Amino acid sequence: SFSLKTVASKIKNGLMPVLDHFAEANTVFDLQDVFQRLAFDVTLTLVTGYDSNSLSIEMPENEYAKAMDDAEEVAVVRHVKPMFLWKLQKWIGVGEEKKMTKANAAFDRSCAKYISTKREEIINQRIHQHYTIEEKAYDEDLLSFYMKLDTSKYNLLNPKDDNFLKDIIKSFMLAGRDAIATTLTWFFWLLSKNPEALTKIRQEINTNSPRSGKSLDPDTLNK
């Protein structure tokens, strides 16, 4: 499936080279940051079809990822600050709310770029007519799927509305990145505190992994 291929490709071409680089340089690194970049790239690819390559040896800053961090930080502050105060700051455009305004602008710029590029891609690379939407959906990103929706079946959805598509991108990015990154970070922290579990996992991997050096396929992973 598209999701499995995306994850496998990012692990092979993104995560492993970065970890190898840190290991060879004997460098201490922030594992949570690595997982956030991994989750961001995977989620963005699944949602838009484009890989930002934020998980690379250079560890570059990504405008969209930074905007997500800023927006989440402001959202937390809103929960502890009186509503009238943060709304006043939003209206005036100062304090933390100024950061939220900038984050939203970054969201809009990034989403507009992805949507525009995807529209051109769909126009220039027509999907073969013998594929149905249901068949093609298994091998394409979410943005493409929504853009090709049969509006006669889904009257409330408007794939031509950029705001609708932006909301789709934002929602799935916010839901995907932090959930994956937090879970992975917590999992590896638990492994560090439970060496006996780590040993069992290593034994299971060694027992079931292919000896030919080939990548693990879904059937092998399900063992």
TrEMBL record:
<feature type="region of interest" description="Disordered">
    <location>
        <begin position="203"/>
        <end position="223"/>
    </location>
</feature>
<keyword id="KW-0560">Oxidoreductase</keyword>
<dbReference type="GO" id="GO:0004497">
    <property type="term" value="F:monooxygenase activity"/>
</dbReference>
<dbReference type="GO" id="GO:0020037">
    <property type="term" value="F:heme binding"/>
</dbReference>
<keyword id="KW-0503">Monooxygenase</keyword>
<keyword id="KW-0479">Metal-binding</keyword>
<keyword id="KW-0408">Iron</keyword>
<dbReference type="GO" id="GO:0016705">
    <property type="term" value="F:oxidoreductase activity, acting on paired donors, with incorporation or reduction of molecular oxygen"/>
</dbReference>
<dbReference type="GO" id="GO:0005506">
    <property type="term" value="F:iron ion binding"/>
</dbReference>
<keyword id="KW-0349">Heme</keyword>
<dbReference type="Pfam" id="PF00067">
    <property type="entry name" value="p450"/>
</dbReference>
<protein>
    <submittedName>
        <fullName>Alkane hydroxylase MAH1</fullName>
    </submittedName>
</protein>
<comment type="similarity">
    <text>Belongs to the cytochrome P450 family.</text>
</comment>
<dbReference type="InterPro" id="IPR001128">
    <property type="entry name" value="Cyt_P450"/>
</dbReference>
<dbReference type="InterPro" id="IPR036396">
    <property type="entry name" value="Cyt_P450_sf"/>
</dbReference>
<feature type="compositionally biased region" description="Basic and acidic residues">
    <location>
        <begin position="214"/>
        <end position="223"/>
    </location>
</feature>
